Recover the amino acids of this structure.
């Protein structure tokens, strides 16, 4: 049994999604509600990570100083060096402590991401790789059924089921042979039967030959006829019900990319990409990653400044569906608000003393500087 991303998506994300859609029949609002529920559920883990990183940022200069002194003083006594190191970590905390909460919440976030990339928000694709042999080799082919992994498919707004693509005769065909791709559940109920049982359903698969178009012919009902030897890849697509559904300023939740084939700009997606970058930058300021202190590593400062640009630009070159972008924007806003709230918390007494000492040293430095007009040198005392 799968207890990974697929399990979380099917047994946690989708029931929450169905619940909120049952209250307010809007997939846009359902995405908002699902995102907020998951972020609130992960709040304690995320908060622990933010607190740990905040404390490490304050303690890092002093920790590095103490660690160097210990390494120098006890370089010939590893046991004593390890003992003193442990005392430093007990006083300031372990630098790796903030990583564990992040790792624990990653499977849930991956499952949420996968849920919003599938049905009903996006079209679901099934890829079938076929091998076609010459007619004289047909006798050597041993029929063996081939099935893809199941994917959750929304038949109607209120009904969905895991559907797989099945080739009953297998993925190896001889020239002149025919086979038919069947979409069905693991129990053997076909997609046609599921659609027939739902009066409002209009789900109909589409077919496309991705590779070896001259070697096969495929009909609208999924019947494949082998024409010539070689490798073939066929893609069957089941449309998502909410692909063309809009929400507020978003024209279509399933739309992918800020630019279409004709070069037209989709301002809704471009706006979300830009807003994501801005919110990421604000989050960095609140978490102290955009500091401008004199002791800051110049290389790290450059990386921090470029991070919002790189991540935002990535969504332009590797586009995501609008519904997924909306989730990422909402999640990042939530993270920014959480960082702001936690940044107002008082630090432990030992770290607060470090902050006060740094502020005092900075104020003395600022007071010692003599203001002068631009382009003129300072007067000698």
């Amino acid at each position: 049994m799968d207890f990974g991303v697929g399990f979380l998506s099917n047994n946690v994300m989708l029931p929450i999604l169905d619940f909120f859609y049952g209250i307010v029949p809007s997939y846009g609002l359902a995405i908002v509600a699902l995102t907020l529920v998951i972020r609130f559920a992960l709040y304690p883990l995320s908060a622990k990570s933010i607190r740990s990183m905040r404390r490490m940022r304050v303690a890092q200069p002093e920790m590095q100083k103490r660690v160097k002194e210990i390494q120098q003083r006890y370089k010939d006594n590893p046991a004593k060096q390890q003992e003193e190191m442990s005392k430093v970590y007990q006083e300031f905390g372990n630098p790796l402590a903030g990583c564990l909460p992040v790792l624990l919440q990653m499977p849930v976030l991956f499952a949420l991401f996968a849920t919003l990339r599938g049905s009903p928000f996006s079209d679901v694709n099934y890829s079938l790789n076929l091998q076609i042999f010459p007619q004289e080799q047909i006798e050597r082919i041993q029929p063996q059924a081939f099935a893809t992994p199941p994917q959750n498919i929304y038949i109607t707004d209120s009904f969905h089921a895991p559907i797989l693509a099945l080739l009953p005769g297998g993925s190896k065909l001889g020239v002149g042979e025919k086979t038919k791709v069947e979409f069905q559940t693991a129990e053997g109920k076909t997609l046609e039967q599921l659609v027939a049982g739902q009066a409002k359903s209009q789900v109909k698969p589409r077919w496309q030959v991705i590779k070896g178009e001259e070697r096969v012919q495929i009909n609208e009902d999924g019947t494949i006829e082998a024409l010539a030897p070689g490798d073939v890849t066929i893609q069957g697509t089941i449309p998502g019900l909410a692909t063309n559904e809009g929400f507020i300023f978003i024209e279509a939740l399933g739309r992918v990319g800020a630019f279409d084939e004709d070069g037209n700009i989709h301002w809704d997606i471009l706006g979300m990409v830009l807003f994501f970058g801005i919110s990421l930058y604000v989050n960095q300021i609140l978490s102290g990653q955009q500091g401008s202190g004199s002791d800051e590593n110049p290389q790290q400062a450059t990386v921090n400044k470029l991070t919002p640009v790189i991540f935002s630009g990535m969504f332009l070159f590797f586009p995501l569906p609008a519904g997924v972008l909306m989730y990422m924007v909402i999640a990042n806003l939530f993270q920014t608000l959480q960082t702001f709230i936690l940044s107002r918390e008082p630090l432990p007494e030992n770290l607060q003393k470090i902050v006060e000492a740094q502020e005092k040293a900075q104020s003395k430095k600022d007071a010692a500087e003599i203001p002068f007009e631009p382009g003129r040198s300072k007067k000698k005392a």
